[in-house]
Amino acid sequence: MDKAKRGTLFTVLSEKTEYWRWRLMASQDSFYQYLRNRGVSRRDFIKFCTVMAASLGLEPGAAGAIAEALETKRRMPVIWRNFQECTCCTESFIRTQHPKASDIIMTMISLDYHETLMVAAGHQAEEAVAKAIEDNRGNYILAVEGAIPVKDGGIYCCIAGRTAVDMLKEEAKHAKAIIAWGSCAVNGCVQAANPNPTGAVPVQDIIKDKPIINVPGCPAIAEVMAGVITHVLTFERLPELDSQGRPKAFYGHRIHDKCNRRAYFDAGMFVENFDDQGAKEGWCLYKLGCKGPNTYNSCSNLEWNGGLSYPIKSGHPCIGCSEFGFWDNTGGTSMYAHLSEVPGLKIGVNVDAFGAAAVGAAIAGAAVHAGLSAVTKKQMDRQENEKNCKNKVEG
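The structure assignment produced for this chain is given below.
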């Protein structure tokens, strides 16, 4: 081997050695130590813990417990796999504001594999994930984005010569817990929609012996994803989950409950067409197929893009993207066909209570609501007519 080639080989080996030395040191640091090494003050650290307590819906005093936990815990190893998906959950995640994605990736967790965000590629990337699993058996979090095709031996999604289903089984075996990001990983989403040509299934249909946190949405809300990671890191346990494995803190209420258009629903004032006067004045989108009344998510609470807006607020009906089978739940008609039944009027009904409620009670509630709304609408119309007549007389 000539001198030039030896020099190049030495450089490559040195870079790889330095990379793994840095990874080892970084992953062994606690969250607080890592921040201190980067020049973050104690005051800013406490401020960060306070923000985290608020985002998780905890009482202010919980900030001290979070600070104590982060001072002693090493950064959490995370392996993030992408299967059948469009990467929208990753796109959502990198836009989180509280905390910022850069803070999560660089300081809170040790992101040992993510094919979109990591520098390494090809064999180096696969070496990285293999080493991460070996070094952190039983202690790493496996995050999965995307559905898993099982038809024809799983050949419709292969990475590095292995099928997604084999890869998932192998990497879940030594994981501490699994986070299923987005509707693709939680319920199959569009890949599993009829006729489902690849046999796409969600993570929970394949892995039965590991705790799974389902975080649905197409995509999942950025701050919800950040909140789940922060909770697991801080308390070293799964957040409280509902009957569908979703964090109750973020999926415990319907979008309808805190919708900015809820008052118009209660008044029976509905948009009939996207360009009518009601649409311009922000009336309820129920008649345009809004699924907010039976969709559990934090859209109307946290909103999107740093709390700027969410689909209903921006003028488009909710399509229920965090609910199972939402692509096929149109009754064979348009996604804009309105719900045939509206759940009861009570605000704050959680998914478990709603699932156990009697159908008759729901129908009765809807009937009462329809009657009250009709009366309210009639009264408002009469008042408007009287006002117009008065203006004409005075004119």
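Interim note for the steering committee: The longest helix spans residues 359-394. The chain has 16 helices and nine strands.
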